[in-house]
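Two entries, shown back to back:
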Amino acid sequence: MSGARVVSFARAADGGGFITTDGEEVRLSGVLAPSAGGEAASTTVTAAARDALETALRDRTVTVAAGEAPRDRYGRTVAQVFADGIWVQAGLLEAGEVRAAPDVASVACAKALLAGEGKARDGRKGQWRGLFRVRDPDDLRNRVGSFQIVEGDVVTATVTRGRAFINFGADYRTDFTVTIEPEDMRTFRQAKFDVPALAGKRIRVRGWVEFYNGPEITITTPAAIEVLE
């Protein structure tokens, strides 16, 4: 792994990150633990997620591999993490302890992250028995400020002045919409992802819910969309 280095694990900060013996905070790239998505999670749930990460890393050789954006705005290292050569994110996803949230640092392994989550979701493992869920586009009005996974049928998908609008209802002024900013559309074009071709298809999309003419999620990477047909 290019840029990989070994660190000494001290303790899990929560279900999605840990502290090294040198005081460095490492966040697991491409996943979100309970409560990290803005949802209310009980102390029992958050403690279980923290313990799962602690168990995965304690007394093992821990390797971190940072991507193109090695630090977040809080100065924390964002990386894929391996314990004795085993990919930690994959294990936590398959156990249902975290959700997939593909970002710049995890683009190369986004499909694997989503596949790992899918195993837990289909098997109703871990938090997929309660806290984690896939929501309907009509169930987002009270979810502003939270990370959500949404599944539904696309009514229209257009690109206007470089900005993409993926609409899940007949009235864009009130219904759920996914948007892609012009600067991020370059990434979709490079990936040969045809946004207008989504019209009429059933998709699963994930991101942070905002409110502008109805519930809205702005995405930056094709990995945030799964075409289900």
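entry 2 starts here
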Amino acid sequence: MRQRLPPAGSATRSLTDLGQPRLDWCSLAQGMGVPAAKATTVSELQAGMEKALQTPGPFLIEALL
């Protein structure tokens, strides 16, 4: 018989929360040698996609919804 685990507490939930600390994905990518762009609007996303297609290799676009 499988033992039921108690509900997760706030400390347990914090271990899997991707919101804290807030990560700067563009800085992380650039620190690893990957060019990156942040998009908060459709036009910024379009510009990032165009730049990504013109750039050889990987390119990160952080799309903030």
